[in-house]
Amino acid sequence: MVFEKLIAGEIEPVEFYENSVVTKDGKERIVAWHNSVFRDERGNIVSTLSSGEDITDQKLLEQRLHHTQKMEALGTLIGGIAHDFNNKMGGITGNLYLAKKEALAIPSIFNKLEIAEELCFQMTGVIKQLITFTQKEMIEEDEISLNECVKEVLGTHKFDVSENISLYIDLAENDLYIRGSPMQIKQIVNNLLENAVDAIADVLHPAIQFESGMFEADDDFRSRHPEQKNTLFAHLEVKDNGTGIPHEDMEHIFEPFFTTKNKIIGQGLGLSVVYGLVQNHNGIIDINSSPGLGTSVHIYLPLIEKE
């Protein structure tokens, strides 16, 4: 059909174009086509030659490079602002403390100063989260169990999770040992739990699942993460049946202050902090999401191999 239209002059020949194809196993691949046309002595097209090249891996690498460069640029910009803001906030809280001492005998003023001080402390917490996102910190190389970190966080917050939420926990039978900071790993788990709870707020039968296991990097994983040299990982998946993330928002989900939630509900720092903490541990974070079907967050942390 296309060749007939070329012969008839209904369409112009295209030397190069890309399109998506679906393989027999249902996977989508991107193919780059290079086309040549052959003409007779009168200039009419008599035949064509087309060759296709699978450039899916190349496109994925380009996307990851673009994402990495964008996150580094954001980190540089936000890091400078956050540190400067943190220094100024220290001066403000110091002066508020002194003002409170002088206002002890005037309750109405003292109470207002206390409110201002509390707001400053809240902003300091936001700044600390920004700094976590913007710089790769040196962490203590403690040997820790991923499963124990997950159990501790879920045990601490089990009364905070609404009774109508089904919480499924399926952790590996054998402990998964990694090197890193227990506090940071727990913060990763805590942020993912809070994100999942927010995502299922309007779901009729809300459910969250935590699952862990050992993961061995395969060809597909290595093609998506060529910079990762480790082979064995402790894998944590946090899955919800919430609203999901629109395709057009996926490239922004790790950016600070980007959120698909009501702005009153969230600051948009949860996944940004998770991204920074995972980077601190030389790990990988992948997210799969479909609007209306839910979201799966995959965390891969280098595994300590036990004898």
TrEMBL record:
Entry-linked Gene3D superfamilies:
1.10.287.130, Histidine kinase-like ATPase, C-terminal domain, PAS domain
Q: Which PROSITE patterns match?
A: HIS_KIN, PAC
Which keywords annotate this record? ATP-binding, Kinase, Nucleotide-binding, Phosphoprotein, Transferase, Two-component regulatory system
E.C. number, please? 2.7.13.3
- What GO MF annotations does this protein's record show? ATP binding; phosphorelay sensor kinase activity
Ranges where the PAC domain occurs? 15-67
Give a yes or no for keyword tRNA processing in this entry.
no
Query: What enzyme class is recorded for this protein?
Result: transferase
Q: Which SUPFAM superfamilies match?
A: ATPase domain of HSP90 chaperone/DNA topoisomerase II/histidine kinase (SSF55874), Homodimeric domain of signal transducing histidine kinase (SSF47384), PYP-like sensor domain (PAS domain) (SSF55785)
Query: Could you identify this protein by its name?
Result: histidine kinase
Please give the organism.
Answer: Mariprofundus ferrinatatus
